[in-house]
Amino acid sequence: MTGPDVARLDVTVDLASGVPPYEQVRTQVVAHVSAGHLRPGDRLPTIRALATELGIAPGTVARAYRELEEAGVVVGRRRAGTVVADGAVAADVLVRTAAREYVEAARAAGLDDEAALDVVRGELARTRED
């Protein structure tokens, strides 16, 4: 999906996958940022344009963009559209993604915040000793 000033965004969605479409879009955008294919300031396709290209509902793309914005990967600017955030450096994006996935796994396992943090503290201590 490209336009006059829209970054090339090679994203696909597998509707038969067990992974929700918004999550597929989100992780692929993160991967493009991590790989350096998308750089700070690059403009993403509009929600409507990407939804049309992928054959999914605009609300699905909107959710992916919203989660990307919450993670600091992109910034929504009214007139400029959605752009890759200045602070979206590859390592930072990967760590935020891993943290998000860890929190989801910890919650699914029934851990409260303090127990989840204890696991992280334990791993940090273990890796300092290695």
From TrEMBL:
Keywords: DNA-binding, Transcription, Transcription regulation. GO terms for molecular function: DNA binding; DNA-binding transcription factor activity. The keyword Transcription applies. SUPFAM superfamilies: Winged helix' DNA-binding domain. InterPro entries: Tscrpt_reg_HTH_GntR (IPR000524), WH-like_DNA-bd_sf (IPR036388), WH_DNA-bd_sf (IPR036390). Residues 19-87 form the HTH gntR-type domain. It comes from the Bacteria. PANTHER family: HTH-TYPE TRANSCRIPTIONAL REPRESSOR YTRA. This is GntR family transcriptional regulator. It comes from Sediminihabitans luteus.
